[in-house]
Amino acid sequence: MKVTEHIQKANGNTLFSFEVLPPLKGQNIRSLFDHMDPLMEFKPPFVDVTYHREEYVYKKRGNGLLERKTVRKRPGTVGICAAIQNHYKVDAVPHIICGGFTKEDTENALIDLNFLGIDNVLLIQGDTRKPEREFVPEPDGHAYASELIEQVVDLNKGVYLDEELENAQPSDFCIGVAGYPEKHFAAPNMQTDLKYLKLKQEKGADYIVTQMFFDNKSYFNFVDRCRENGITLPIIPGLKPITSIKQLTILPQLFHVDLPMELTAELEACNNNEEVRQVGIEWTISQSKELMQYGVPSLHYYSMGKSASVYEVAKALF
To answer: Model pTM?
Structure first.
């Protein structure tokens, strides 16, 4: 079932959903299921699975020179989505990224997903390849998520890259995209960011999931500005319980988000990470309750491979 159909079926009630990371290369699916099992108690209608692009690593050769090698540390998004749907009977939402994919790679991944009965995709540009500082698309790849949308919409119409195909069967993907309540870091201003988000809607996006935020005013203002600019799609808020003191500096650096002064003060007063975790849980519960009163379509939690804090939040709400 499509994410938008789940939202409609909920009839105004707020759903629970979350995002998982593929296991590191060398681990098995059981490590992921052990993480997910507790959260399935709250009956999520869909679960997102991230996609991680390749990285460059440098290894010293026998002659002392460095050899650059390409590695993908978390492969398996397509297979994991199939395993989740088979094991839990819930809809899996794979992330499809621009980085590391040609258009043909993207089409082949979408064909596999369609064969597996996966109805939803979340289309994002994706991270810059480490250790590069700027995003560089693949030759004959996509530079922006809006271009990914065009390809998926074409496939939904039965239009494949091979123009000679006859009687090609259309797919029927529901398309999710990312939104940034505090502005995408690469956008010069919020209005420009909203212009490109509206472009995604015009090209065929069906719903929006936001980057994490820690002040609900950021989400409320974002929704208001979206509506003022003609963006009518459902906007699902993304939340992340803080679990360690180092995240006080890491999260703003990695995700370009602000932490409210009140939250910062509470975290800095903690004596250890267990106290930090409790503050993070309580803060996210408070955020979630206010968002539920606002009538958000779903509360979407970024678990980062650890379910304990998300479980405590969900237990207080669902």
So the answer is: 0.93
